[in-house]
Write a structure and sequence with these properties.
Keywords: 4Fe-4S, Iron, Iron-sulfur, Metal-binding. Involved in iron-sulfur cluster biogenesis. Binds a 4Fe-4S cluster, can transfer this cluster to apoproteins, and thereby intervenes in the maturation of Fe/S proteins. Could also act as a scaffold/chaperone for damaged Fe/S proteins. The chain is of the alpha/beta class. It has 2 domains: 2-93, HesB-like domain (Hypothetical Protein Aq_1857, Chain: A); 108-180, GMP Synthetase, Chain A, domain 3 (2-Layer Sandwich). Helices cover 25% and strands 33% of the residues. The protein is built from 3 helices and 10 strands. The chain has helices at residues 6-19, 108-125, 156-171; strands at 2-4, 25-31, 39-45, 54-59, 62-67, 77-84, 87-93, 129-136, 141-148, 177-180. The strands form 3 sheets. A 4-stranded mixed beta sheet has the order 3-2-5-4. A 3-stranded mixed beta sheet has the order 1-6-7. Strand 9, helix 3 (156-171) and strand 10 (177-180) form a beta-alpha-beta unit.
């Protein structure tokens, strides 16, 4: 169901050793499970504060607590330690957190929204940004709106043309163009 690489186990156990708190555990949750905006979170916790639906998993140096309601969303998940610039960071691959990918015969709008949420938005989120589908025109133009750190960002044009648009057109060849209707005049919270 949920695996942690050996390197990640050592890293997490070291974090717990630094806390010097008795009975401290690792709470693993899936926020908005089964939706396109699902996110897996890790937090320190005291088991006595958790509901009875949380099950305990023992690892060397720490215990993890996972809500049984999230088991299906954490199926085939893996926690690993990855290089992040000058240090390391925990990452999780959770292919089932967002639920099932729409079927081949699902409406194009539903499939595009899923790809944006599952494949595109996580990359934009690292810069505090996001993108959402506004509409698909009769001419098969995909109209998008950028927000957060992407609104007003000087790189949004290349993000649209070389990133988002390229991914969507490769996945859905029936798309003629991908356009941005965002008002980028306000750059107060822009990433760049």
């Amino acid at each position: 169901m949920f695996s942690i690489t050996d390197e990640a186990k050592v890293y997490v156990a070291d974090l717990f050793a630094q806390q010097d708190e008795k009975d401290l555990g690792l709470k693993v949750d899936v926020e908005k499970a089964g939706t396109s905006t699902a996110a897996v979170t890790f937090n320190f916790c005291f088991p006595k504060e958790l509901s009875k639906t949380y099950q305990k998993f023992e690892y060397e140096g720490f215990y993890a607590y996972i809500d049984e309601l999230n088991f299906e969303y954490l199926k085939d998940s893996e926690v690993a330690l990855k290089d992040a610039g000058t240090g390391k960071k925990l990452t999780i691959t959770a292919p089932n957190a967002k639920g099932e990918e729409p079927k081949e015969d699902a409406p194009l709008e539903e499939k595009i929204k899923y790809v944006i949420a599952a494949n595109i938005s996580p990359g934009l989120a690292s810069h505090g940004g996001f993108v959402e589908l506004v509409e698909i025109t009769k001419q098969m133009d995909v109209i998008l709106n950028f927000g957060g750190g992407c609104r007003g960002c000087s790189s949004v044009k290349s993000t649209l043309e070389q990133g988002v648009g390229t991914q969507l057109k490769a996945r859905f060849p029936e798309i003629k163009s991908v356009r941005d209707v965002t008002d980028h005049s306000n750059t107060d919270n822009a990433y760049m």
